Amino acid sequence: MIQQLVDNFLPEQNIIPWLIIAFGLSFLIAFQTFPTILYVAREKHLMDVPDSRSVHSNHTPTLGGIGIFLGLIVVMTIVGAFLNTKVLLLVMGALTVLFFLGLKDDLTVLSARKKFLGQLFAASLLIVFTDSRIIGFSSILDIDILPYWVSVGFTLFVYVLIINAYNLIDGVDGLAGSIALCASGIFTYLFVMADDLSLATIAIALCGALIAFLRLNFSATRKIFMGDTGSMVVGFLLAFFTISFIHMEQVDTEATYYRDAPALAFALLFYPLMDTLRIFFIRIFVHKTSPFKADKNHIHHRFIQHGYSHLATTVIIAGINVLIVIIAFNLTYFDLNNQIFSLLLYGTVLYLIPFGIKKWALKP
Prior knowledge:
- Keywords: Cell membrane, Membrane, Transferase, Transmembrane, Transmembrane helix.
- GO terms for molecular function: transferase activity.
- It is a multi-pass membrane protein.
- Its main location: membrane.
- The chain crosses the membrane at residues 15-41, 62-81, 87-104, 116-136, 148-168, 175-192, 198-218, 230-248, 263-286, 307-334, 340-357.
- It is a single chain.
- It is built from 14 helices and four strands.
- It is mainly alpha-helical.
- It has a domain at 2-255.
- The protein has a two-stranded antiparallel sheet with strand order 1-2.
- Helix 4 (85-107) packs antiparallel against helix 5 and helix 13 (310-329) runs antiparallel to helix 14 (336-361).
- The longest helix has 29 residues, at 15-43.
């Protein structure tokens, strides 16, 4: 009877129950894994030690990425028989590579060069074997279709950019997890609308694992960070979702967001991308130092310096990013160049407003 049920079950005809099961399974696996991770981290002293850049004063476990990874892998393994096995296996392979690179960096130290090479290898797996890449600029600056090798090179650049931009925003409680949760939730909807249940399943599984993680990331007594293990895994998936969304819209002229996909993808990840661009500009042109030299000039650092708590900083930044996405989806009647220009304008203004409010509130 069970075998007959499995043979006849079609996820496409049961999308909502399917996504609920994937979400619940990922959440449950991660939720049950984190207490063990906390125990091992404390017993073996695998902690983040506060330094001059830290906004925390206590030693905190940094292996939250393990729970996120396990939640994702278990879901993809169990549901793989019902979905696009090729895509799922490639994603699992790429995530495993990045997982172990991130784990080594959390436990010891991994050179930036090795992390960069690992990111390129993981991204190349998806690009080469699924041909999922950004095939053009959708007429941005009058550039449409890119030559194949230029397309591959640009897609690799986008992968590396998003992975590392995401890693850079992991600076205050809940911020990186909340940004990823919002983006993954919206990607789930977009993939369902595009009839790609495999990608929708991965995206909703990431939501489940992230909610389980955020419960402890916000905790005062059982706090855990996602570490490089988590930021590499989650950042890679966000990059994969972004490129997959742009690709599926660009190859189908009848797609809902055929011309709008680049602007919408940019809006979904506006905060990490904008903050990275801003921080690199400050380091290169203001401080005249290496763009990779760590400092406390990120936007979330500025929020803390202006008196906002960790929770307030996360809620405001994530809330603004959601508002940016809502505006972006309501400006699709603009041509793509104007969508991106408007996004840069209203996105920047929205992130400046909290500083103005705080300054006004502190006036005598």
